[in-house]
Amino acid sequence: MKKFIYLIITFSTTIIVGCKSQGTLKLTENGKIESGKVNLKCDKPQKTYTKAVDIALKGSVAKLESTEGVDLNATVKTEVVKLTQYSQQGLDLDLLIFRMCQMTNNKAISSEQAQEIITLAMKTWNNKMSINEQKNVISQLKVELDSNLKTANELKLNIETVLSSLNLISGDQVLRNSKIQISPILFPISNLDKSPVAVSDMVNESITKYLSLNLNTNELEQQKFSATGKLIALTLDKTIPTFNSLADRDGNRYPIYSTIWNANSNNLSKIDVYDITKFQKTYSELNSLKANYDIVINRATDYLTDLSKFFKPENNQIKKEDLEKILTSERFAYDLILTYSKSLVENIENLSKLQQTVDESLK
Fold it and tell me: What is the pTM assigned to this prediction?
Protein backbone atom coordinates (compact mmCIF):
# COMPACT_ATOMS: atom_id res chain seq x y z
CA MET A 1 0.00 0.00 0.00
CA LYS A 2 1.30 3.44 -0.87
CA LYS A 3 2.37 5.36 2.18
CA PHE A 4 1.34 8.96 2.74
CA ILE A 5 2.68 11.59 5.06
CA TYR A 6 0.05 13.38 7.07
CA LEU A 7 0.96 16.85 8.21
CA ILE A 8 -0.88 19.08 10.64
CA ILE A 9 0.09 22.68 9.92
CA THR A 10 -0.17 25.12 12.79
CA PHE A 11 0.74 28.78 12.61
CA SER A 12 1.52 31.29 15.29
CA THR A 13 -1.51 33.43 16.00
CA THR A 14 0.75 36.48 15.93
CA ILE A 15 1.38 36.25 12.17
CA ILE A 16 -1.66 38.23 11.14
CA VAL A 17 -4.16 39.98 13.36
CA GLY A 18 -7.55 38.33 13.29
CA CYS A 19 -6.38 35.17 11.50
CA LYS A 20 -5.52 31.79 12.96
CA SER A 21 -4.73 28.62 11.00
CA GLN A 22 -6.61 25.36 11.20
CA GLY A 23 -6.87 22.26 8.97
CA THR A 24 -4.98 19.31 7.57
CA LEU A 25 -3.04 18.76 4.37
CA LYS A 26 -2.36 15.32 2.89
CA LEU A 27 1.01 15.29 1.12
CA THR A 28 2.64 12.68 -1.11
CA GLU A 29 6.15 11.41 -0.49
CA ASN A 30 7.36 14.12 -2.88
CA GLY A 31 5.76 16.78 -0.70
CA LYS A 32 2.92 17.64 -3.12
CA ILE A 33 -0.58 18.39 -1.83
CA GLU A 34 -2.90 15.49 -2.63
CA SER A 35 -5.94 16.42 -0.58
CA GLY A 36 -7.14 18.58 2.26
CA LYS A 37 -6.59 22.26 2.88
CA VAL A 38 -5.56 24.72 5.55
CA ASN A 39 -8.09 27.29 6.67
CA LEU A 40 -7.33 30.49 8.50
CA LYS A 41 -9.64 31.15 11.43
CA CYS A 42 -11.04 34.59 10.75
CA ASP A 43 -12.26 36.67 13.69
CA LYS A 44 -14.91 39.20 12.73
CA PRO A 45 -14.41 42.62 14.32
CA GLN A 46 -16.92 43.46 17.03
CA LYS A 47 -17.90 46.71 15.37
CA THR A 48 -20.77 47.98 13.28
CA TYR A 49 -20.03 49.16 9.74
CA THR A 50 -22.22 51.00 7.28
CA LYS A 51 -23.97 49.12 4.53
CA ALA A 52 -22.04 51.05 1.85
CA VAL A 53 -18.72 49.96 3.37
CA ASP A 54 -19.76 46.31 3.58
CA ILE A 55 -21.08 46.27 0.00
CA ALA A 56 -17.90 47.86 -1.38
CA LEU A 57 -15.68 45.46 0.54
CA LYS A 58 -17.64 42.37 -0.51
CA GLY A 59 -17.46 43.54 -4.14
CA SER A 60 -13.66 43.81 -4.01
CA VAL A 61 -13.36 40.45 -2.27
CA ALA A 62 -15.56 38.81 -4.91
CA LYS A 63 -13.26 40.19 -7.60
CA LEU A 64 -10.23 38.79 -5.80
CA GLU A 65 -11.85 35.38 -5.47
CA SER A 66 -12.27 35.24 -9.24
CA THR A 67 -8.66 36.29 -9.92
CA GLU A 68 -6.03 33.62 -10.40
CA GLY A 69 -2.27 33.30 -10.77
CA VAL A 70 0.22 36.12 -10.92
CA ASP A 71 -2.56 38.70 -11.33
CA LEU A 72 -3.80 38.17 -7.78
CA ASN A 73 -1.21 40.31 -5.98
CA ALA A 74 -1.63 43.18 -8.42
CA THR A 75 -5.40 42.98 -8.04
CA VAL A 76 -5.08 42.98 -4.24
CA LYS A 77 -3.14 46.25 -4.36
CA THR A 78 -5.57 47.82 -6.84
CA GLU A 79 -8.66 46.83 -4.85
CA VAL A 80 -7.23 47.90 -1.48
CA VAL A 81 -6.34 51.31 -2.92
CA LYS A 82 -9.90 51.64 -4.23
CA LEU A 83 -11.24 50.77 -0.79
CA THR A 84 -9.22 53.50 0.92
CA GLN A 85 -11.84 56.02 -0.13
CA TYR A 86 -14.23 54.31 2.31
CA SER A 87 -11.93 54.92 5.30
CA GLN A 88 -13.79 58.18 5.98
CA GLN A 89 -17.01 56.16 6.13
CA GLY A 90 -15.62 53.81 8.76
CA LEU A 91 -13.76 51.11 6.85
CA ASP A 92 -10.69 50.10 8.86
CA LEU A 93 -7.89 47.56 8.76
CA ASP A 94 -9.74 45.12 11.05
CA LEU A 95 -12.64 44.60 8.66
CA LEU A 96 -10.37 44.57 5.63
CA ILE A 97 -8.18 41.79 7.08
CA PHE A 98 -11.26 39.82 8.15
CA ARG A 99 -12.63 39.82 4.59
CA MET A 100 -9.20 39.05 3.12
CA CYS A 101 -8.91 36.14 5.53
CA GLN A 102 -12.28 34.81 4.36
CA MET A 103 -11.23 35.24 0.74
CA THR A 104 -8.06 33.17 1.16
CA ASN A 105 -10.11 30.37 2.75
CA ASN A 106 -12.64 30.41 -0.07
CA LYS A 107 -9.84 30.17 -2.66
CA ALA A 108 -8.23 27.26 -0.74
CA ILE A 109 -4.75 28.58 -1.40
CA SER A 110 -1.56 27.65 0.44
CA SER A 111 -0.84 29.11 3.84
CA GLU A 112 2.24 30.89 2.51
CA GLN A 113 0.27 32.59 -0.23
CA ALA A 114 -2.52 33.47 2.19
CA GLN A 115 -0.02 35.13 4.50
CA GLU A 116 1.56 36.96 1.55
CA ILE A 117 -1.78 38.29 0.33
CA ILE A 118 -2.94 39.49 3.73
CA THR A 119 0.44 41.09 4.48
CA LEU A 120 0.30 42.84 1.10
CA ALA A 121 -3.19 44.12 1.86
CA MET A 122 -2.01 45.46 5.23
CA LYS A 123 1.02 47.21 3.74
CA THR A 124 -1.04 48.71 0.94
CA TRP A 125 -3.65 49.97 3.39
CA ASN A 126 -1.07 51.46 5.78
CA ASN A 127 0.66 53.15 2.85
CA LYS A 128 -2.63 54.19 1.41
CA MET A 129 -3.40 57.23 -0.61
CA SER A 130 -7.09 57.35 -1.33
CA ILE A 131 -8.40 57.52 -4.86
CA ASN A 132 -9.76 61.00 -4.17
CA GLU A 133 -6.35 62.10 -2.91
CA GLN A 134 -4.69 60.60 -5.97
CA LYS A 135 -7.17 62.27 -8.30
CA ASN A 136 -6.57 65.58 -6.52
CA VAL A 137 -2.81 65.34 -7.13
CA ILE A 138 -3.37 64.33 -10.76
CA SER A 139 -5.76 67.26 -11.20
CA GLN A 140 -3.13 69.65 -9.84
CA LEU A 141 -0.48 68.15 -12.12
CA LYS A 142 -2.82 68.64 -15.09
CA VAL A 143 -3.24 72.33 -14.19
CA GLU A 144 0.53 72.72 -13.96
CA LEU A 145 0.97 70.91 -17.28
CA ASP A 146 -1.59 73.15 -19.02
CA SER A 147 0.23 76.23 -17.72
CA ASN A 148 3.57 74.91 -18.93
CA LEU A 149 2.15 74.03 -22.33
CA LYS A 150 0.92 77.61 -22.73
CA THR A 151 4.48 78.75 -22.05
CA ALA A 152 5.79 76.19 -24.55
CA ASN A 153 3.44 77.58 -27.19
CA GLU A 154 4.71 81.11 -26.48
CA LEU A 155 8.29 79.90 -26.90
CA LYS A 156 7.35 78.28 -30.19
CA LEU A 157 5.84 81.55 -31.48
CA ASN A 158 8.90 83.48 -30.28
CA ILE A 159 11.25 81.17 -32.14
CA GLU A 160 9.19 81.51 -35.31
CA THR A 161 9.46 85.30 -34.98
CA VAL A 162 13.22 85.16 -34.34
CA LEU A 163 13.93 82.83 -37.24
CA SER A 164 11.76 84.89 -39.56
CA SER A 165 13.59 88.10 -38.59
CA LEU A 166 16.97 86.41 -38.85
CA ASN A 167 16.28 85.00 -42.32
CA LEU A 168 14.98 88.37 -43.50
CA ILE A 169 18.04 90.27 -42.28
CA SER A 170 20.61 87.77 -43.56
CA GLY A 171 18.75 87.02 -46.79
CA ASP A 172 18.72 88.53 -50.25
CA GLN A 173 16.38 91.38 -49.29
CA VAL A 174 18.73 93.02 -46.79
CA LEU A 175 22.28 91.82 -46.12
CA ARG A 176 22.68 90.01 -49.43
CA ASN A 177 20.57 92.32 -51.58
CA SER A 178 21.67 91.81 -55.19
CA LYS A 179 20.82 95.44 -55.98
CA ILE A 180 23.78 96.41 -53.80
CA GLN A 181 26.59 94.88 -55.83
CA ILE A 182 29.10 94.76 -52.99
CA SER A 183 26.84 93.01 -50.47
CA PRO A 184 26.48 89.50 -51.98
CA ILE A 185 30.21 89.51 -52.79
CA LEU A 186 31.28 90.21 -49.22
CA PHE A 187 28.57 87.95 -47.83
CA PRO A 188 28.42 84.78 -49.99
CA ILE A 189 25.15 82.91 -49.56
CA SER A 190 27.13 79.69 -49.24
CA ASN A 191 28.23 80.82 -45.77
CA LEU A 192 24.72 80.01 -44.54
CA ASP A 193 24.77 76.50 -45.97
CA LYS A 194 27.63 74.88 -44.06
CA SER A 195 30.12 75.63 -46.82
CA PRO A 196 33.18 73.34 -46.80
CA VAL A 197 35.30 76.36 -47.70
CA ALA A 198 37.16 77.85 -44.74
CA VAL A 199 36.08 81.36 -43.78
CA SER A 200 39.56 82.76 -44.42
CA ASP A 201 39.56 81.30 -47.95
CA MET A 202 36.04 82.60 -48.52
CA VAL A 203 37.12 86.10 -47.53
CA ASN A 204 40.14 85.96 -49.83
CA GLU A 205 37.88 84.92 -52.72
CA SER A 206 35.44 87.72 -51.94
CA ILE A 207 38.14 90.37 -51.82
CA THR A 208 39.67 89.11 -55.07
CA LYS A 209 36.29 89.34 -56.78
CA TYR A 210 35.61 92.73 -55.19
CA LEU A 211 38.86 94.13 -56.57
CA SER A 212 38.51 92.47 -59.99
CA LEU A 213 35.21 94.28 -60.46
CA ASN A 214 36.81 97.56 -59.42
CA LEU A 215 34.20 97.98 -56.70
CA ASN A 216 36.80 99.66 -54.50
CA THR A 217 36.79 102.63 -56.89
CA ASN A 218 33.10 102.57 -57.80
CA GLU A 219 31.75 105.53 -55.83
CA LEU A 220 28.09 104.77 -56.55
CA GLU A 221 28.32 101.20 -55.30
CA GLN A 222 30.36 102.36 -52.32
CA GLN A 223 27.66 104.89 -51.42
CA LYS A 224 24.91 102.31 -51.85
CA PHE A 225 26.73 99.81 -49.61
CA SER A 226 27.44 102.49 -46.99
CA ALA A 227 23.82 103.66 -46.93
CA THR A 228 22.55 100.08 -46.74
CA GLY A 229 24.97 99.37 -43.88
CA LYS A 230 23.66 102.32 -41.87
CA LEU A 231 20.09 101.21 -42.49
CA ILE A 232 20.91 97.67 -41.38
CA ALA A 233 22.59 99.00 -38.23
CA LEU A 234 19.50 101.08 -37.36
CA THR A 235 17.27 98.05 -37.93
CA LEU A 236 19.48 95.90 -35.71
CA ASP A 237 19.45 98.54 -32.95
CA LYS A 238 15.68 98.08 -32.80
CA THR A 239 15.71 94.31 -33.24
CA ILE A 240 18.37 93.34 -30.68
CA PRO A 241 16.46 94.71 -27.62
CA THR A 242 13.46 92.62 -28.70
CA PHE A 243 15.62 89.52 -28.95
CA ASN A 244 17.11 90.30 -25.53
CA SER A 245 13.66 90.50 -23.99
CA LEU A 246 12.72 87.16 -25.54
CA ALA A 247 15.91 85.59 -24.16
CA ASP A 248 14.43 85.58 -20.63
CA ARG A 249 17.86 85.11 -19.06
CA ASP A 250 16.54 85.41 -15.48
CA GLY A 251 13.83 82.82 -16.18
CA ASN A 252 10.96 84.99 -14.94
CA ARG A 253 9.17 85.76 -18.19
CA TYR A 254 8.78 82.20 -19.48
CA PRO A 255 9.09 79.92 -16.43
CA ILE A 256 8.63 76.16 -16.60
CA TYR A 257 6.93 75.16 -13.36
CA SER A 258 7.47 71.90 -11.49
CA THR A 259 6.09 73.09 -8.14
CA ILE A 260 3.27 70.56 -7.92
CA TRP A 261 5.46 67.70 -9.10
CA ASN A 262 8.18 68.48 -6.54
CA ALA A 263 5.71 69.08 -3.71
CA ASN A 264 4.24 65.60 -4.24
CA SER A 265 7.50 63.78 -4.89
CA ASN A 266 7.03 61.56 -1.82
CA ASN A 267 3.53 60.53 -2.89
CA LEU A 268 3.98 59.98 -6.61
CA SER A 269 4.99 56.35 -6.14
CA LYS A 270 1.71 55.75 -4.30
CA ILE A 271 -0.39 56.80 -7.28
CA ASP A 272 -1.61 53.77 -9.18
CA VAL A 273 -4.92 54.91 -10.65
CA TYR A 274 -2.94 56.65 -13.41
CA ASP A 275 0.39 56.14 -15.15
CA ILE A 276 2.27 59.03 -13.57
CA THR A 277 5.25 58.57 -15.92
CA LYS A 278 3.21 60.34 -18.62
CA PHE A 279 3.50 63.56 -16.60
CA GLN A 280 7.16 62.89 -15.87
CA LYS A 281 7.94 62.75 -19.59
CA THR A 282 6.31 66.15 -20.17
CA TYR A 283 8.62 67.78 -17.61
CA SER A 284 11.65 66.29 -19.36
CA GLU A 285 10.46 67.57 -22.74
CA LEU A 286 9.63 71.02 -21.34
CA ASN A 287 13.07 71.43 -19.77
CA SER A 288 14.71 70.28 -23.00
CA LEU A 289 12.54 72.72 -24.95
CA LYS A 290 13.55 75.64 -22.72
CA ALA A 291 17.24 74.73 -22.99
CA ASN A 292 17.03 74.57 -26.82
CA TYR A 293 15.08 77.82 -26.88
CA ASP A 294 17.72 79.63 -24.82
CA ILE A 295 20.52 78.46 -27.13
CA VAL A 296 18.69 79.59 -30.28
CA ILE A 297 17.73 83.01 -28.86
CA ASN A 298 21.14 83.73 -27.35
CA ARG A 299 23.05 82.70 -30.46
CA ALA A 300 20.77 84.73 -32.73
CA THR A 301 21.19 87.79 -30.48
CA ASP A 302 24.98 87.41 -30.43
CA TYR A 303 25.08 87.22 -34.21
CA LEU A 304 22.95 90.35 -34.70
CA THR A 305 25.12 92.19 -32.17
CA ASP A 306 28.24 91.23 -34.12
CA LEU A 307 26.58 92.30 -37.37
CA SER A 308 25.65 95.66 -35.88
CA LYS A 309 29.26 96.24 -34.85
CA PHE A 310 30.41 95.29 -38.36
CA PHE A 311 28.37 98.11 -39.86
CA LYS A 312 29.69 100.59 -37.26
CA PRO A 313 33.44 100.31 -37.96
CA GLU A 314 36.03 102.70 -36.57
CA ASN A 315 36.82 105.50 -39.01
CA ASN A 316 34.10 104.04 -41.27
CA GLN A 317 36.59 101.53 -42.64
CA ILE A 318 35.84 97.79 -42.86
CA LYS A 319 38.96 95.66 -42.56
CA LYS A 320 39.62 92.14 -43.79
CA GLU A 321 39.68 90.81 -40.21
CA ASP A 322 36.28 92.44 -39.60
CA LEU A 323 34.83 90.51 -42.51
CA GLU A 324 36.39 87.26 -41.31
CA LYS A 325 34.99 87.83 -37.83
CA ILE A 326 31.39 88.49 -38.93
CA LEU A 327 31.34 85.58 -41.42
CA THR A 328 32.68 83.26 -38.71
CA SER A 329 30.05 84.52 -36.29
CA GLU A 330 27.34 84.05 -38.91
CA ARG A 331 28.43 80.53 -39.81
CA PHE A 332 28.66 79.46 -36.16
CA ALA A 333 25.29 81.05 -35.37
CA TYR A 334 23.44 79.38 -38.24
CA ASP A 335 25.01 76.01 -37.51
CA LEU A 336 23.85 76.08 -33.88
CA ILE A 337 20.50 77.65 -34.64
CA LEU A 338 19.70 75.05 -37.28
CA THR A 339 20.67 72.16 -34.97
CA TYR A 340 18.82 73.35 -31.89
CA SER A 341 15.79 74.59 -33.81
CA LYS A 342 15.28 71.06 -35.11
CA SER A 343 15.53 69.72 -31.55
CA LEU A 344 13.07 72.37 -30.42
CA VAL A 345 10.58 71.34 -33.10
CA GLU A 346 10.93 67.73 -31.92
CA ASN A 347 10.23 68.88 -28.35
CA ILE A 348 7.05 70.62 -29.51
CA GLU A 349 5.90 67.56 -31.45
CA ASN A 350 6.60 65.23 -28.49
CA LEU A 351 4.78 67.54 -26.09
CA SER A 352 1.78 67.63 -28.40
CA LYS A 353 1.65 63.83 -28.43
CA LEU A 354 2.12 63.61 -24.65
CA GLN A 355 -0.61 66.20 -24.07
CA GLN A 356 -2.99 64.18 -26.24
CA THR A 357 -2.06 60.98 -24.36
CA VAL A 358 -2.63 62.64 -20.98
CA ASP A 359 -5.95 64.18 -22.04
CA GLU A 360 -7.26 60.90 -23.46
CA SER A 361 -6.23 58.83 -20.45
CA LEU A 362 -7.85 61.28 -18.01
CA LYS A 363 -11.23 61.14 -19.73
Answer: 0.67
